[in-house]
Design goal:
InterPro entries: KFase/CYL, KFase_sf. Helices cover 27% and strands 12% of the residues. By secondary structure, it is of the alpha/beta class. The strands form two sheets. Strands 9-1-7-6-4-2-8-10 form an eight-stranded mixed beta sheet, sandwiched between helices. A two-stranded parallel ribbon has the order 3-5.
């Protein structure tokens, strides 16, 4: 499929092959008999990216880069070794992160055993890198600012559910228009809470160990809202994007396994929020350069928001 101007709405999508979930986008983006592995990133067409890049920008001074000369130590060498789990910090989830649990299949029908077989090379961030990373129009819905302004009771820990009605209210409050292909950013205030709470606070430790996180309500209505807006990806400052634990509906199953839509988590959106408020503009040009790794389940975002 090359023409994305008339995508089916959520209710017009078929069920998953095993009949357990409505709203399955497998095969929708296949082209020339080739199984698609990019999912909703296909919506970031050249026209969409160029349009986002052409939007009015503010000139800033260039980066000042200082190199430290270590020759005084008597050794002329530089090296490093980095080892980390992307899930423990700001990261993207690829469609390989979470399968449709009942069928044990990832996006477009890739089986769990097939993915984990020896030398199996599938999706991952190498494909993202090959198409130029993730670049396009980012839009911030500053739910945390809206909630504070409207005295909405909320805590980032405790399974508070953010409804799509509230997301629409935030967009209207900001006078923000959502467009197909947008990369949706949602600020809930989770990172702000983590940054301000003392790391040795026993109450903070107990709350995190409960593994109950606030976020977007996991419901068919939420699935319908996200698909019908045709976002290319979603990002939040939360651990799970959706309120966790979930019930019968799990947004991870829909976003990653059914649609191939990347989920960004634990992004620090505090400075972005400040800039958006100061400019009264909640859209920007996003560039993200994920790791160039085959079969990668996730990656640091290496992202910039350009105004």
């Amino acid at each position: 499929m090359e023409d994305f101007s008339a995508l089916p709405d959520f209710d017009s999508l078929p069920y998953s092959p095993d009949g357990s979930l409505p709203g399955c986008a497998w095969k929708l983006f296949d082209h020339n008999r080739q199984a698609d592995q990019l999912g909703t990133l296909n919506l970031l067409t050249q026209d969409k990216v160029l349009d986002a890049a052409r939007r009015k920008s503010n000139v800033r001074s260039t980066l000042q880069h200082r190199i430290l000369d270590l020759s005084s130590s008597g050794m002329y060498a530089s090296d490093e070794h980095v080892s980390f789990c992307p899930q423990h910090g700001s990261h993207w989830d690829t469609p390989l992160h979470f399968a449709h649990q009942k069928s044990k299949k990832y996006y477009n029908g890739l089986g769990h055993q097939g993915f984990h077989s020896q030398n199996a090379l599938h999706q991952g961030t190498r494909l993202w890198s090959a198409r130029g990373g993730i670049c396009g129009r980012g839009v911030l819905l500053d739910w945390a600012a809206w909630a504070a302004e409207h005295n909405v009771p909320y805590h980032p820990i405790g399974n508070h559910k953010i409804t799509v009605a509230q997301l629409e209210e935030v967009a209207n409050w900001q006078k923000t228009t959502l467009s197909p292909g947008d990369i949706l950013f949602l600020r809930t205030g989770f990172v702000s809470w983590c940054n301000t709470a003392a790391t040795d606070d026993e109450n903070r430790r107990r709350m995190l160990e409960r593994a109950e996180y606030s976020g977007v309500e996991a419901s068919i209505e939420s699935c319908r809202w996200h698909w019908n807006h045709h976002f290319s990806a979603v990002v939040s400052d939360t651990i799970t994007y959706e309120a966790w634990p979930t019930g019968e509906i799990v947004l991870h199953e829909y976003f990653l396994a059914m649609w191939g839509m990347p989920i960004g988590k634990l992004w620090d959106l505090e400075k972005l929020s400040e800039v958006c408020r100061s400019r009264q503009r909640w859209s920007f040009f996003l560039t993200s350069a994920p790791l160039n790794v085959a079969s990668a389940v996730g990656s640091p975002p290496n992202a910039l928001a350009i105004f």
